[in-house]
User: Fold this.
Amino acid sequence: MSPLPKTLGELRSSQWSEEKFAKRGVRQEIRENLLAKMEKGEPLFPGVQGYEDTVVPQIVNALLSRHHFILLGLRGQAKSRILRDLVGFLDPQVPYVAGCEINDNPYAPLCRACRDRLATEGDATPIAWLARDRRYVEKLATPDVTIADMIGDVDPIKAARAGRNLSDELTIHYGLLPRANRGVFAINELPDLAGKIQVGLFNIMQEGDVQIKGYPVRLALDVLLVFTANPEDYTARGKIVTPLKDRIGSEIRTHYPSTLAEGISITEQEAWTERDNKRRVVIPSYVREIVEETAFQARDDKRVDKRSGVSQRMPISTLENVLSSAEQRAARARDSVIVAHVSDIYSALPAITGKIELEYEGEVRGAENIARELIRVATGRTFTRYYPNANFQPVIQWFENGGELKMPANASNAEVLVQLKKIPGLFEHLDALGVTNKDDGAIQAAAAEFILEGLWAHKRISRSEERGFYADARKMPDPRDPREPAGGGRMPKRQFN
Assistant:
C-alpha cells in the first residue's frame, strides 16, 4: 500500500483527487459506504437486535436520503448505540488541512485560517489524516449548554495576542458542532437544549450561518446531525422549537423488544455472565425467561410509569445479580457448579426497584412489593408455558397432608436435592424442562424448585418466610389469577440453596 499523501500537491495526484473528493460531503460518503455494505451483505448495526424489520430499514432510508434524523424512544432502547455505530459507514480515514481545528477539507476549506494558509502555501500545504473514530462527536443536552459550547465564541485573548479586532473571524474559538465538521454530530435528549441553542442549530443546518457575539459568521459545515429524544418531550406541548423539528429530515421511533425471545437474546448478549472462576455456570432457560418476563410485565403494569418506560437494562442487571446470588451460594456451600435458581431472582430486587418509576398507586404499594409481585406473575406465566396441562396433584396433596419444606440459607445442592426428593411426584415432571436424572444434582434441584415456585405463583400451595412451602388448609386461593397478592406472605430472601 502506497504511503498517504503529506501535502496538498501529493493529494491532488493521488486517488483522493480534487475531481473525486472536492464536493463529496459526509452524508454522500455515508450513503456510498452504506450501499456497499448492503451489497456485500455485511451487518449494518452489529449487536443491535430486534430492529431488523422496524427501526433499521427506516434508518437506512434516512441515510440513503442524506437526511439528518432523530431517534424517538424511551430509555434503554439502544438509541445511543445506534448513533455510535454510524461511524462504521464512514471512510477509514479522510484528508484534512494539518492543524485545522474544524478538520477542513483541503479542497474546500471553511475557516479563514485555512483559506489564508492555502493561498500562501499552495500545493505545499501540509495534509493530515482523520480516522473515522475521531469523526464522531456526542453531546448530552442539558439546560446549561450555551451557544459558545455548541457553536463557538469570540476569544478575546486570541484577539489581543494577534492584535486583531474582536469582529475578526480569526478570533473565534470554535464549539463542538464546528469541531465535528466532516463527521457525525449527535445530541442526546434534544428537547433539553435551551430554545436559543435550538435556533442556532437550525440556522447551521439550513442556512449555514450563525451569529457569534452579534457578528454574522458563515459556517457551511459538512456534518450529519443526529438526535435522540423522549417522545413525550418531542411534541408541540414539549420543549422543541418547531422550525428545528421541521428541518430534521426523518423521525424514527425505537421500541422495546416485541417478543420474549428477542428480549432474552439481547439480555444474553449484554449481561456479564462469563464469570472468572473455576466453577461451571448454569443459567436454566426458565430463569432467563422469568427475568425477561418480569420486564415485560413491568412495561404492562398500570402501576409503573409508562412515560419513563422500563429499560432493557433492567433484565440485564437483574440477570447479573441472579448469577451473583447463585455464585455466592455456591462459594459458601463449596459446590462445584453454580446454578441459578428462581429464588435468586428475588435476591436481585435492587436491580429491579431502581429501574422502575411508579405511578401513585405503585408508590403507595412500594417498589419492593411491586417488584416481588412482578416476579411472581412472571414465574406463573413461565410455569404455564412449560406445564400447560400437567397434573401436580400428588405434589399438592403432599403439602395438604401436612408436608412442609424449608431449607437453610447456606444448604448445599446435595442437601437441597435430598429434601426435594421427599416430595412424591415432583421429579417426574423435570423432563419438560429438559432435565433428566442423569443431570447434575444442582440442576435437578433448581428445576424442582421452579415447579414449587410455579405452584406457589398459581396459588396451589402457600409459602411464608417462617415455614417455607406448605399448604394452608383453611384457605387455598384461586389458582387461575396469579396477579393477586400472594396468600403465603413475604418472599424469603432465600428458600433453596
In short: The mean pLDDT is 87. The longest helix spans residues 313-333. Residues 47 and 269 are 8 Å apart (CA to CA).
